[in-house]
Automatic annotation (TrEMBL):
The keyword Cell membrane does not apply. This is HAD family hydrolase. CDD domains: HAD-like. GO terms for molecular function: hydrolase activity. PANTHER family: HAD FAMILY HYDROLASE, HYDROLASE, HALOACID DELAHOGENASE-RELATED. The keyword Amino-acid biosynthesis does not apply. It holds the Pfam family Hydrolase. Keywords: Hydrolase.
Length: 229
């Protein structure tokens, strides 16, 4: 039996990366006079990766990385009003409604009798706000907001909740964060791809050891088949 099922939040339960993609389009427009779109994207990604150890994941770090990239690309000549635009972009992201993905409500209802965890990474304030606004908090036995998803993180969570790795199933959209480290920790994993994946989260999927579904509508049947086998 699988007695504990954990779900990722961003781009598994609710839309997230599409909001970042839309904001990055607006960022390119602000800097169109300073560099070509491909160079803007490359420099922003480099800055984001360099800043992860300082800001962590989330909208606030993204905005600060946009400002830093803009200053560098314009050699310090970016106008104050353009910096204000970038700040306003971030505020709009933080205030954006939480839109659930298709099949979320039905999947969670199907597992109402089981221990359900929400394991999501990012800025504590932002993630807490999204969870509250999603209306899903009551569906979970516990919520874990972490700064990184790696083998050690999952091992700590499993130990804290007294979960045997072989009876644990993680459901998420990121191969890098939701699949590979869970398999390394001895758990099971289901990949539910989102139509946009941040470059930093892209990784080669393992040859085997996990399952992939198109949407959460397919999850209840998949769990039944895993337990039957």
């Amino acid at each position: 039996m699988i007695d504990t099922i954990a779900f990722d939040g961003d781009d598994t339960l609710w839309h997230n990366e599409s909001l970042f993609s839309m904001t990055q389009d607006r960022f390119r427009a602000v800097l169109a006079h300073a560099a070509d779109p491909a160079d803007i994207d490359r420099r922003l990604l480099e800055t984001e990766r360099a800043n992860l150890g300082v800001y962590g994941y989330g909208i606030k770090g993204f905005v600060l990385s946009m400002i830093e990239t803009a200053v560098e690309l314009t050699e310090g000549r970016i106008a104050g009003r353009d910096i204000q635009h970038l700040i306003d972009f971030g505020k709009a992201m933080l205030e954006h409604p939480v839109d659930l993905l298709d099949g979320v409500e039905e999947a969670l209802a199907a597992f109402a009798g089981r221990r359900l965890l929400l394991i999501t990474k990012g800025d504590l304030f932002d993630q807490e706000s999204k969870i509250a606004r999603s209306g899903l908090a009551e569906r979970f036995t516990a919520v874990e907001i972490v700064s990184e998803k790696d083998r050690a993180t999952y091992a700590r969570i499993l130990a804290r909740h007294g979960v045997e790795p072989g009876r644990f199933l993680m459901v998420g959209n990121s191969v890098r964060s939701d699949i590979l480290p869970v398999l390394e920790a001895g758990g099971r994993a289901v990949h539910v791809p989102y139509h946009i994946t941040w470059a930093h989260e892209q990784a080669e999927p393992p040859a085997d050891g996990y399952r992939r579904i198109a949407s959460l509508h397919e999850l209840p049947a998949l769990v039944r088949s895993l337990e039957d086998s």
